[in-house]
Amino acid sequence: MKNCERYIGLCFEILGLTSFERFILYRRYQISFFIVHLTMIPRQYYTERDLRKRQIDALKVFNDNVTEVKEHAEYKVEFMANSRNMVLNIVLSPEFPNDKPAIFVNPVFNHPWLGENSNQVVGAPGLLNYTVHSDLGRVVQAIIREFQRSVPSIANEDKSTDTSPQSHISVNSLMFPELSELNIEELQEILENPDLQDKLLENNPQLAEIDQETEELMNSIEEIAQDNLTKQQMLDDMKSKVLEGISTIVQMKMSYEDLNKRYQELCEGYSPHRIRDCLKDAAIRADEDAEAIAEQFLLGNVSVETFVMKFAEKRALGQARRAREERLAHQLAQLDRATT
């Protein structure tokens, strides 16, 4: 980190940047460094709806008199500035918080943060540097504080709409009001003296507030990063449990498929139609066995007593099987008629 800072300082010297330009670029570098550091750490998983709700909740926490105009899409914040009733309208697009909010002020007045011939706030640092990790509540709070300091009073409203060069000078000196009290020689001295420029930047309340907000943002990023690190072990344990559960489910599925295949085979083997066919085949075999015994008797290979006993047994067995087969076929026919 320190080596990077020395390298950046050397680059500033080579480029010949002013102290103010160095200050702004260095602060942006610090913010970018911590945001990159944050993105390299495992984050909690939130849906777009959760992130949108968290931003809206932050808007209500950091600001008073927040009114919902359209649910999750448009909000109104009323505030007092120099004895004037002011209103900020915050419009959230469907892509918010990935896209920055659109903020409008009413009534309109001259201010460098407002768009040309428009009441939309476009130059606020919180909007210029807006990311998905920005805090909507703090962005709006900083805009309100700035307008409360710089909005003209009711008595001076006509003067604030003056389009003369002097009015533009006063508007542009809102960030450095002490410059309006200096003469040309003093301004030229500040322009040529970097030490005076640094002192001017250090004593500027707006830059001090930006610096404080930057520090708060970096502290918040560090807290979130530490919180994510503490939850890493829990996340790994949950992943292991999920993988074990998936393995168990795969084994149970394979076992189910084997048992289901065996069940289908048994169902086919013991179905009523299968039993009927088996009885019919068994009755035919019994009749064939009886005829074979009769042929052996006619050939003189079997005695009368043996012939009578075996022939009667096979005949009785065949008739019994045929009777069962016919009775089962009749029941199946009735069942088919009842179901059709």
TrEMBL record:
Q: Does the keyword Cell membrane apply?
A: no
Q: How does this protein lie in the membrane?
A: Peripheral membrane protein
Query: What are the TM regions of this chain, as residue ranges?
Result: none
GO CC: one term? late endosome membrane
Its localization reads: Late endosome membrane
- Pfam families to which the protein is assigned, alphabetical: Mod_r
Tell me the Gene Ontology biological-process terms attached to this UniProt entry: protein targeting to membrane; protein targeting to vacuole; ubiquitin-dependent protein catabolic process via the multivesicular body sorting pathway
Any idea where the VPS37 C-terminal domain is? Answer: 253-340
Q: Tell me the function of this protein.
A: Component of the ESCRT-I complex, a regulator of vesicular trafficking process. Required for the sorting of endocytic ubiquitinated cargos into multivesicular bodies. May be involved in cell growth and differentiation.
Q: Please identify the protein, giving its name as recorded.
A: VPS37 C-terminal domain-containing protein
In its UniProt entry, the species of origin is given as Pieris brassicae (White butterfly)
Q: What is the lineage of its organism?
A: Eukaryota, Metazoa, Ecdysozoa, Arthropoda, Hexapoda
